[in-house]
Amino acid sequence: MRIITGTIVIIFLNLGYIIPAKAQLTGGGSTQENNESQSSGSLFERSGYLKVGWANPKGNFGTPAELGSNYNSIFSGEDGMGAQSGFAISFEGVSPTNTLSRIANAKTQLGIKYGVQYTNNPVDWSNLGGGWETSTEYSSFHFLDLKLGAVYAIEPVNDFIIDLFYNPMFTLVIPGEWYYDGSITDEITPYDEYGELDVPFGLRHGIGFQLRYNAFLFSVETIWGSLDYNFYHTRTGSSSDEEWTYNNSLKNNSTLITFGLAF
């Protein structure tokens, strides 16, 4: 009986030594795996962004046309273009270019940023033909931007990420058509004024920051650059028809403030 009891005690003592040792080895492996997982992770795990917000024109692009102005002064660059605050919607993606690194306690990572963006800025040309009795119609400025640039992501605390980005963009302006009908008050001479654009295009630049927390984001971006405008201005119904053509590089600057989701 003593032999059996002694054998059982020895077995339990051996189990008591083996199980903690095995647990320690297993725990060490988990720690190693966690460290490897952290070093091989990404700050761009949610690599797609859908953003919607405000598009605020700046500079000459957002300056109202002066009273009495016409297409000539607007598209020659002598007068403000009369763009108003509108909206922007974009779909963007990010691909990491390197593994995670650290600065102090913050994680950092570089990436390539790309996407497509649509912006709509209404136009206020109510001052056109000042001194005339006019009926004016005009369409908005419609911008289509193709973006490609770089982004630097910083995660100072868990799940809160700051993106600093710069992206050149190729911009097309979807052509609109404008006209106003009027008559000079003293001569009672009717006019029909038409304006038509080719497809303006050019290279613009965007720089800004983006704040991400889990799937939610907030972004501010400043856009600047000039676009080539080919504009045709026709006046009919007067004593003689007239036509003007303008080919100018005009600045189209704006600030975008957007909210969105990362997925």
Tell me about this structure.
The structure is a single chain. By secondary structure, the protein is of the alpha+beta class. The protein has 2 domains: 1-40; 44-262, Porin. It contains 2 helices and 14 strands. The protein has helices at residues 2-39, 71-75; strands spanning 48-58, 86-96, 101-103, 106-121, 132-137, 141-157, 160-174, 177-184, 189-197, 201-213, 216-224, 226-236, 242-251, 253-262. Residues 1-39 have low confidence and may be disordered.
Radius of gyration: 32 Å
Biggest sheet architecture: 8 strands, antiparallel, barrel
Give the helix level as a range of percent.
Answer: 10-25%
Category from helices, strands and their pairing: alpha+beta
Strand content: over 45%
Stretches where pLDDT is under 50 for at least 5 consecutive residues are 1-39
Task: Give the termini separation.
Answer: 68 Å
Tell me, what's the shape?
Answer: elongated
Tally of contiguous helical segments: 2
